Amino acid sequence: MKHKTFFWFILPSLAAMTLFIALPIVSVFIQSLFVGHEQVLVVSESCGPFGCSQTTSVDLEATEKLREEAPLGQFNGLGTYLNRSHLAFAEIGVAWAETDTWNDFWSVVGDLPFYRALAFTLTYTAVVTPLVILLGLAIAMGVNTLPKLLKGPSIFVSLLPFLVTPLVGSLILFWMVDSDGVIGATIQLIFNDPNLSLKASAALTWTMLIVYGVWHTLPFSFITFYAGLQTVPDDIIEAAKVDGASKWETTLHVVVPHLMPLVSFVTLMLLMDNFRVFEPIVSFSAEAHARSLSWIIYNDLRESGNPLYGSAGATSMLTIIGVVILLTPVLLRTWRDFNRKAH
Amino acid sequence: MATASENRMTPGKIIAFSLVGLWLVIAAFPFLWTFWGSFKVQADFFSKADWTNAIWGTNTIAETGSAYTGQGYFGAWITEEFWQNVINSGIVVFFTVVISLTFGTLGGYALARSGFRYAFWLLMAALVFRAMPHITLVSGYLLPFFEWNIWGHLPTTIIVLVAINQPFTLWMLHSFFLNIPKDMDESAMVDGCTRFQAFWHVIVPVMWPGVITTGLFSFLLAYNDFTVTAMLLSAENETIIPAINSFLGTTQVEGKVMYAVAAVVSATAPLFVLILFFQRQIVSGLTAGAVKG
Known about the structure:
- By secondary structure, chain A is mainly alpha-helical.
- Chain A has 15 helices and four strands.
- Chain A has two domains: 76-111, no CATH class; 114-342, MetI-like fold, CATH 1.10.3720.10.
- Chain A has a two-stranded antiparallel ribbon with strand order 1-4. A two-stranded antiparallel ribbon of chain A has the order 2-3.
- In chain A, a hairpin with a 2-residue loop joins strand 2 and strand 3.
- The radius of gyration of chain A is 27 Å and the shape is globular.
- Chain A starts with a helix and ends with a helix.
- The longest helix of chain B is centred in the C-terminal third of the chain and has 35 residues, at 257-291.
- The model of chain B has no long low-confidence stretch (mean pLDDT 86).
- Classes of the chains: A mainly alpha, B mainly alpha.
């Protein structure tokens, strides 16, 4: 295809992506270098019969005018990145110097908002992804042994948790595990503790979110692996049987290696999706114990009346860097494959 | 041919069956429970005393005289004007899907037929864009959109969703077009067609299976979106998902939680129908990227 034809074909798509994905990243970066204006204060002196007193008040008009003239705020350089809500190097330095044990040090770091969100996001991604892959593989093999009549309906049922809107799916689960819901009330009954709530402690909240994550993404890995199982050539299985391999050995040494390319594909997709975990925290109103990177950006933007664009921008930039780090192995491998093919 | 040994129940098979059975219950039960409960009053759906109330509707009978009530649905659709959100969602989803597919087929075709290095780089950039959490992009939109006075309108949200959808659409249609033999359009060009004519007369008639599959996923992305629609739409233009979220914020009063439950069931219904009719396409679409390795 000629360069010119290629250009005209790709133009609409490229324009949309440049305008609404690439440029916003630039805009986020610029925002992150500014902080909102402080309120303009006026000091007025009022003198009465008993002497003079000074009062400080906010000049609403001047503040408004300043915000209108420079909506970005004032230039702050990398200040936002380094403050307590983000990388907080100063606080970490102090903690490093003042704490004696690793435990103390980590508990100080864990209280810093950015690191707390990062810890949750990484834990969520690191727990949900392997669980979903292993369970998905197991269920795919299970469904594969089902009679033909049952295969279609079980795939139908399995698709529901995956395709349902994340916000809606997590609400459905939340209403069940809430202290008045059917599962929540049953748990209270079992442990005989009427105040037991899954939202009460960080550990329980994290578990609840992770269970939701597995429930929501398991169908994706299961269906991909199930489709992969259909492509395992029969003669290889037959050959393994002839060579005296047991069923378990065949699975381990023939089927699983055949599915390996799928495993890396599923891992990539799951990593990307789990890293942006956000909606379940809104639905479960779990923000007291679990905040993800996406959630703290959302919270900054939601700050009523006065959104913290600078702070949201800085967290966004750090998140994007995180995504790129996460994807580096994949990008490098694709790059190598491409070069091998080209030469 | 199933032999006798294949039909025998082995311990391995029993474990496999029970695992699948357990999963199916876990997958389906929350939906059945919520659907059933949406026709009850709050005292039954959140019945602390006795969970069987939610099944038999003890309090629902006491309050309304019948075991089933449409109060939640009436409250959500009529009192809270949920139908307005449904119309908004319809507009957003329809235009997002149509525009995404138009842009995506043109771009995906070009990427599949161009062997140049920049085509590879575009696909890699699209992969990185695909991984971007949507909220990071939204924080870049807000300030400029406020400045230009285009915040809160449906067209703005549609074009943003189209853009966010592009990386995925491009990848999917690109791998689909790779499967259509090059000879088809190239022989048309030998016969004197321009590239676009070849695309229009030769490729378009055979591309519909791929386009429908991709369209299903564009639909899901637009329909399921919360991040973009919650941040970019004003209250009167809200689509259904942010509307459900704002129900929760404002309706913690007794009885009104059921509005949200009814709205949730209403929002799930179209997805249910979608899976019913397009199960095969969805499954093939899920694995489309994977088959290539």
